[in-house]
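I am still getting used to backbone structure tokens and would like to learn alongside you. To get us started, please write out a protein record for me. Once you have written the record down, we can walk along the chain together.
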Amino acid sequence: MTGLELIPLIVSSIGTTVAAANALYLGTAALLYGGLAVGLGFVSKALTPKPSVPKPEDGTYNLKQSVPSLPIVLGRVKKAGDYVFLEESNGTAFHIIVTAGHRVQGFVQHYLHDEAVTIDGSGIVYLPAHFVDDGDNFVKIVTNVGLDHETDYADVTAEFPSIWSGDHRGNGLASIMMSCATAPSKKYLNIYPNQMPEHSAIIDGMRLYDPRTGLTAYSRNIALMRLWHMTSPYGGKLSLSEMYLPDWINAANVCDQLVTNRSGGSERRYWGGLWFRANSDQVEVGRTLDQAAELVLYERADGMIGVHAGEYVAPTKLFDRRNIISFGLNANVDPSTTVLAMRGRFTDPSDLYNTNDAAIYGNPYVGEDTERTSTVDNVAVQSHNHIQRLQKLAYIRRNAPRVSITAHYDVDNDPSYDRFVRIQYGPKLADAVVEITSKVTISLSDMTVTFSGIVVPSDLYDFNALTEEGTPGSSVVVIPHAGAPIPTGFSVVIQQEVVSGGSTAAYALATWNHLSNSLTYEFEWEKTSGSTGPQSAISVAPNDQVRSGYLADGTQYKFRLRTWAGGASSAWTAYQTLTATADTTPPGVVTGASATGGVGQGTYNWTAPNSANYAGARLYVNTSNTFVGATLMATEYGAPSSADSHIVTGLTAGTKYGFIVAINASGVAAANVATGSFVVT
């Protein structure tokens, strides 16, 4: 075995260089001992720009392009997708959108323009209520999770048989089909307040292999994500047999450990999620996952890839004056290299999975006029407690003293597979724990081992959430679409005005409480019976009243009001029912009122009053000589000052009492006049 075969390569840690990380992605230790030609080939690849890991906000909108790169979803994320179909038929638009280029666990919550929606078992969107109008549903969402053999979307196949068939299944692609029916122009902005819906969803992503169980299942464990990434064609391109599974099992267990957050609740130590594309910079993807779970990947002497979990392990290797050949110490007190505080940015599920700022760890203005801070920015972190723990670690490491060691090498003090070692080199460093941050170089020619590291406390990973987590910033509250406000104080009165010819006509005047000078109102009226349809009038802002057209005299109407703002309307108010009255003045009373009985009938006689507005008389009957409780039997129309009579039929036998009431054309009644008793046989 040569000395080079013993060189373990730390490929991803807090102190790892980009070149070292590229080495694993492009072929592990090849840059160290693969030859100049191979190295130049890797360098040329490294110079080729690749898309970075997308921020959560990059997944807000659905992408329309010819051939998008496959999206990969790890853990739980909120994202839109890539269009593969958008057509319209018979007034309905059909959207097919791929959200992940692989099978996912499922869709947790659908959003339309960041508005959470509720769907039934058939995919019909019934909440928020503005997507439903008069019992008509306008939006439907159906999903496929990306099985190896999927089914086509039947609605699309039925509408577009010439371009879409049962063969268009989207095998292995998680997707959604959204259909949006055209809304009437007057209701369009009520139903679609943000125009055509923009779909996104919270998704439980890829199913991951777990070496602890040997099963493949959905997980938010970041160590399992990194294991998948190292063995995927998009990441390390290695096989599972090349991974040192005992290390990965331990790392997964550490990620699943419970920690206490500032609210007193429990959460997993290193859980998270992110999404990226197949053509994203996979080195950056790996570094993001490593930082989120505090992982350090390294190549073992047997060529397998091991991993140090994000935990403190008590050192088993000791370096002191007996074996240290060369010792360098940098106290790291220069303001240009140290910080006073650490900032953090993470993906906040409580803010629709957008990027938010965490509480500052430390004090950036201790005795200085200038701010000295650094930022931990990790899109895979989805918990404030999680990012705060990473901020504390970054703060300690950034301000930690640096050491470099060259020591005599033997098997017992080989630190190749260790993350932490103990150093005793007084008086400079009496007894300290050092975290190795460089590759460990072993030279068999002179039997030495060389490495660099930082001095860290043994309680490096301890974290008291109650005192150290701090208070996160407030999330942006998404205010649901409320539409135009429903009118308040709605009131309707019937009024009259003189029209051509000197006659009067009735109309309705609607009023309401003033809210804004920019609002307009629609006033609607309709006959309660025999209606030919509703009519309406629009107010002129900033007026708080509007009148109807002329109403049919003596006819009952129902009235209601709604608000219009920005092309959208509010819901209607409740109906108010009134009778239109053009003439409010009653005519005179009838004279000469009498009634005579007959078989099942009575004959009423009277003389109409000398009133120009007399239109007719209402005939009542009662079993007692009182108008209270009398029954209207008929209405006889006639001219003023004329004698009139009418036979009322359908009466039961017995003594009856009649009453005659004169009315005008609007139905306004004069006082009743009794006919006296009559006998029906």
